[in-house]
Structure prediction request, 684 residues.
Amino acid sequence: MPVGTQATVKTARNSDLQQDGWRIILCNTYHLYLRPGKEIIEKAGGLHSFMSWNGNILTDSGGFQLFSLSRLRKQSEEGYRFQSHVDGSTHTLTPEKVIKLQMAFDSDVMMVLDECLEQPSDRTRTEESLELTLRWAERARKVHPENHQALFGIVQGGGFPDLRRKSADVLAGMDFDGYAIGGISVGEPRKQMMKAVGACIDHLPEKRPRYLMGVGKPEDLVDFTAMGVDMFDCVVPTRNARGGSFFVPGGHLNIRNARFADDMSPVQPGCRCYTCTTHSRSYLRHLFIAKEWLAPILATIHNLHYFSVLMGKIRMAIDERRFSAWRREWHARRRAFDPSGY
Amino acid sequence: MPVGTQATVKTARNSDLQQDGWRIILCNTYHLYLRPGKEIIEKAGGLHSFMSWNGNILTDSGGFQLFSLSRLRKQSEEGYRFQSHVDGSTHTLTPEKVIKLQMAFDSDVMMVLDECLEQPSDRTRTEESLELTLRWAERARKVHPENHQALFGIVQGGGFPDLRRKSADVLAGMDFDGYAIGGISVGEPRKQMMKAVGACIDHLPEKRPRYLMGVGKPEDLVDFTAMGVDMFDCVVPTRNARGGSFFVPGGHLNIRNARFADDMSPVQPGCRCYTCTTHSRSYLRHLFIAKEWLAPILATIHNLHYFSVLMGKIRMAIDERRFSAWRREWHARRRAFDPSGY
Prediction:
C-alpha cells in the first residue's frame, strides 16, 4: 500500500496510482481526524468520495501517530488524551471512538487502536502495554458492526517472542478479518524485525490477511513475503523519491550524483513508467539540483511503479509456485548490484 | 506561453501541457545558461530533447533576469558582467553570446539581449538605454544565422511614447522575424502598460508576431489582444495556482477560504480539466491547508487549462470576426462576478 497520510499519496494523482494498478492505499485516522475532521469527510460521503479514490482504503488507528506525533499525550485505561500536533487543541481518542471515526470515513479496512511502545522497553512495561492493547482490541471488536468494513487486530509484544505469540493467539481468538503485526519502526534492525515476525506469524490464521505495518524496503517485501506476510505499507517509495533516490533492480540511484549530470539514458532502461519513458537522468538531476517541483513528482511516479512491478512479480512467482527460486535469483542480483555500472 | 524558467513549467508534466493544447512554452536563457549550462543542453541535442518537449520553445534573452536576479551586475557597451544568483560565480553575457547560447539551446524563437531599466527612469537615462539596446539588437541581428530559428527584437523606451515609437521603427527596419514589447513588469499599472503598447504597436509590422513580454492576467490577454498583440507569456496562471488562487470565468477563487471547507462542488462547474472533473473544492482546500504536494499540482492543471481555453476563445472569436462583441460580453461577465455566488 502506498501511504496517503492526509488523503493524498504525496505528489501522486489518483490517475497515477490507478495506472500502476494500485488497488489499495493507506490513510491515517489520526491526521484525518484532526484535519479536515470527521464532519467534512462524512459530508463528502466518506473518504473514498472525499479524495475521489475508487480503489480500497485501509485506515490505520492512530496508535503509532499518537506515539510519534502528538504532544502532551496522556494514556489511561480509557484511551488517549493528547494535544494536536497541528494546532495544540486537546482531544481524546478511545478504542471505540477510533472505530466510529473509521466507520465515518467508510474505509474498507479499519484498524484497532493499539499502544505503541518506545523500543527497547523492558519485559514488565511491554507486558503491561500488551495487556492494555488486548483489552482495547476486545473493546474495538465489540463495537465493530456487521457491515462491509473489515477490522484488523494488531499484534504487539515488542522484542519478546513469547509475548508476540501470546498476542497473536489472543487476537486470533477474537476472530478479526485480518491481523497486523505492529510496533516495528522503519529504521529497526532487520534481525529484530525477523524475530518479531517469526515469533507470531504462524499463530495468525493463514486464511486471513497478515499485514506487516510500516514495512518496507524492496528486500523486506521479498523476505517477509517469504515468511508469510500478505500486506505491507511503507513511505519508502514516496519519501525516498522526494529525496532523489530512484529504485532500480538490485538497488537504487541517487540522482543528485554528479556523474548523472550529462547522462542521457533513462533512470532504469526498459522501465515502462512515464518518467523513464519520457526523461533522462540528466534532466531529472537538473530538476533536483534546481529544486523544481517536477523533481519529486517524476521520482514518485518511478518509485511507485517500481514497487508495483516488484509486488506483481512476487504475486506471479507465488501463483506459479516458483517463489523460492525467484527470491534466490532476486537476492543474487541484489548482491551483484553495482550502481556505477548503472 | 506558460513559463518554464528552468526547462520545466512548475509542477506540470509535458503530458499535461500537451493535453491542454499548449504548443509553445517559454524558457529562460539566463537560468539555463547558469544551470544546467550550455554543454549539457548541447549534449542532450538541444532544449527540446533535454526536457523532452515536442512543442515549440521561446527562449528569452536574459535581459530581464540580469536586471532582476543577478548580483554585482556591471553593464558596458560590450554587455553584462555579473555574478550568478546560484553560486556567485562571475559571468559575461553579450548580445552575440546570448544568440550563440540560444542557438545551442536550439529554441524555436530567440530573443535579442536588451537592457531593462528600473521604472520610472528619467528621459535622458531612458534614451541612453534605448540607444544601447538598439545597438545590441543590431549586433544580435548580425550574428543570427539563416537557420530555422526565429529571432525577435524587443521594443524598449520606458514610459515615453515617442521613444517607444522610435524603438519600434528602428527595429522594424532591421527586419526581425517578430517583435516583442519589453520593459513592462507584472505589477505595473494598466494605464501605463496600455500607453506603452499603444505608442508602438502600430509601428510594428502587422504580418509579424507581436509579443507582449511578461503579461498577463486574463483581462490583459483580452485587452492587449484587442490592441493587436499576438503573443504573451506570464507566470500568473502557475504562480497564482501555487498560492491557492483558481481562475474561474469572471474572476478567481482563493481556495483557502473557510467557506470552501465543506463545499463538495468542483472549482469551476463544467470545467473539463482533470482537477475539476476529479476533485471538490473541499478536498482542494484540505490539500492547501495541509500543505500537501498535490495542492499546487492540481491548481496548476486547472489554471493552465483555464488560460488555454481563454486563448482558444479569443482565437475563435477573431477567426469568426466577432471579437469586439465577445470582448464586451466577457468584460460584462467580469464586472458582474461575485465570488460568493460561486
The mean pLDDT of chain A is 96. Residues 239-341 of chain A form one domain. The interface with chain B takes residues 6-8, 10-15, 35-36, 39-40, 43-44, 50-52, 261-262, 264, 274, 278-280, 282-283, 285-287, 289-290, 292-294, 296-298 of chain A (CB under 8 Å). The two ends of chain A are 28 Å apart (CA to CA).
